[in-house]
Amino acid sequence: MTLILAIESSCDETACALIRNGNEILSNVVSSQINTHTLYGGVVPEVASRIHVENISTVVTEALKTSGVSMEDVDAVAYTQGPGLIGSLHVGVMAAKTIAFAYNKPLVPVHHITGHIFANAFVEPLQFPLMALVVSGGHTELVWMKNEYDFEVIGTTVDDAIGEAYDKVARVLDLGYPGGPAIDKLAKEGHFDPQYKLPTPKTDNPYNFSFSGLKTAVLQLNERLVKRGVEVVPADLAWCFQETALQSLVDKSIRAIKERRPAMTVLAGGVAANSRLRELMRERMQEVPSCRLVIPPLKYCTDNAAMIGAVGHVAFLHQKFGTFEDAADPGLEMPCDNDLFSHSQDDTLFNR
Ligand code: KG4
Ligand code: ZN
């Protein structure tokens, strides 16, 4: 039996959860700053960290209260060490260290993206080898997992993340922030229009992705049409952008899945909430009947602390403890087989 208190504050959600045995959610409190950042058209890092400071204590208190457990029952404090916005990360790191110090609990630093992957453990037990298609505002990656704590990046974006492209295209179409859900909704009313045909993204490595050229193509097409006095139909342009981006993403992923033959494929990250991506993956995975597809429920696609608790449980079992010297790391890499980042629990306690 394990009980993990998990903290997430890497971007614009302040969150705390209590997770028993890796997949039982006793509480999952998320305080979103989205209404504030919408006013600015995107996340303002300085504002984000200030709001985290204001909210973190309330969120932790609330998570503990609703879970029905006390700090004495907790085995470890897991927290997002990176990647993310440095000022935002700092708040969660300091909160985790303070709680760990006060209650004499080991610290378990977690990579944010591994949390997104483990959000799928709330649906069913993960099976290995596993392929994760990670799609978020900062990442677009194919992650190969030979076992539960080995994350090998076999493909990545060479420029923009897919969520970033959604957000920028949404800005051109005046859809506000965050752009992903708005494009998802608008594209449902859109159709193919040959004058909006966009170039298919190309990369040297078949597993890598690229979305910057596509994003620029949408901006330039929009400008050209406006200059010519042609009325742009936002739903059709959103449809064409989404289909081009997702066809490329899914084609490459299916190719990698067919070549590597995982037992399970999972979607992870904010863009995994996209209804068309979920539909396309379900369709195309029929070409690989030996591989199970798991898609996380919508509420676990975007940032939350439950997912950090799920991976924190695995890290705890593997004794991947942190120390009080650890700091927020915006460029943190995922733990891979040859990873040296491991301390014993005794180190953690003696290193105060
Ligand atoms: O994983 P996440 O919550 O934060 C990061 O770690 O980046 O992902 C946020 C991203 C944003 O770019 C947002 O526009 C996108 O996920 N997103 C979506 C949808 N919901 C959120 N993109 C496409 N369709 C959606 N339904
Ligand atoms: Zn995220």
Account of the 3D structure:
With 352 residues, the protein is an alpha/beta fold. It has two domains: 3-121 and 299-317, Nucleotidyltransferase, domain 5 (2-Layer Sandwich), CATH 3.30.420; 125-295, Nucleotidyltransferase, domain 5, CATH 3.30.420.40. Helix content is 41%, strand content 17%. The chain contains eleven helices and ten strands. The chain has helices spanning 34-40, 45-67, 86-103, 112-118, 162-172, 179-187, 212-227, 234-260, 275-284, 306-317, 345-350; strands at residues 3-8, 13-20, 24-32, 76-82, 107-111, 130-135, 140-145, 152-156, 264-268, 292-294. Strands 3-2-1-4-5 form a five-stranded mixed beta sheet, with helices on both faces. A five-stranded mixed beta sheet has the order 8-7-6-9-10, sandwiched between helices. The longest helix is centred in the last third of the chain and has 27 residues, at 234-260. It is globular. The two termini are 26 Å apart. Mean pLDDT is 94; it is low at 340-352. 5'-O-[(R)-(carboxyoxy)(hydroxy)phosphoryl]adenosine is lined by residues 11, 136-138, 163, 166-167, 178-181, 184, 269-271, 273-274, 302-303.
